[in-house]
Model the fold of this input.
Amino acid sequence: MEEKEKFIICNHCNRFIKDKQDLVVAFDLFFMNAYHSECYAQRLKSSFFQGNNPVNGHVSNKITVILGLAGLLIVFTDFYAYTALIILQLGIRLYSWFKFERMLE
Ligand SMILES: [Zn+2]
Done:
């Protein structure tokens, strides 16, 4: 069986991103885009609209885990006002994984 080659195109340099370690997913104003880690650093210096917290970074992963656990606690409490925030963060993280990260090894 033939194995398909998976890749993503960097939004900055238009070259292929083939390694998950080199992938940075970040918001560019309202749109989620993929960058090489080096291209992301270059864009971060030059673009006012470039988000400085990558969606697939350590900080975002920790926030997702914390909000996921908070979501479990909400079931037992009355803090429903935070539900939208939790769903938004989990949705963003899931979308990043589905659109970009699952394509790479
Ligand atoms: Zn690039």
Observations:
- The chain has one domain: 8-103.
- The CA atoms of residues 44 and 52 lie 7 Å apart.
